[in-house]
Amino acid sequence: MTMQDPISDLLTRVRNAQMARHVDVQVPHSKAKCAILDVLVSEGFIEGYTVSDEVKAQITVQLKYYNGGPVIEEIDRVSRPGLRIYKESKEIPKVRGGLGIAIVSTNKGVMTDKTARAHGIGGEVLCTVF
Predict the structure, then answer these.
(1) How far apart are CA 41 and CA 29, in angstroms?
(2) CA atoms of 99 and 120, how far apart (whole Å)
(3) What is the rounded CA–CA span in Å between residue 20 and residue 23?
(4) What is the pLDDT of residues 74-93, one digit of tens each?
(5) Nearest CA-CA partner of 113 in 11, 84, 99
(6) Cα–Cα distance between 11 and 48 in angstroms, integer?
(7) E strands in 29-108
(8) What whole-number distance in Å separates Cα of residue 127 and Cα of residue 113?
């Protein structure tokens, strides 16, 4: 069976692993997933990730907890294959009044909503994290 939305699969695996208090979670490798995970690492939502060097590479995501609870309280997919959501730089949503982040795919790469607004770049709003 083929996977229709690999980014939703990544977000769901991370969400489920944190609810089950797992230390890490494995997902199939793709460049888009690595770009999203780079943003999550730089913003402090996950500890890090490693990529295996097998034929079918796997990404192992090290999850982060604070005071016994997961750092990621909420992670939701915004744009999906059936309904793409594109926003200009001024229209990119602020997540929880700026406490969370929106991950945006732009022509300059995958970045946070704050970075995209600062550079005046719009793009596809992939997901929100709080």
Answers:
(1) 16
(2) 20
(3) 9
(4) 999 999 999 999 999 999 99
(5) 99
(6) 15
(7) 46-51, 58-63, 65-66, 69-70, 75-77, 86-87, 101-106
(8) 10
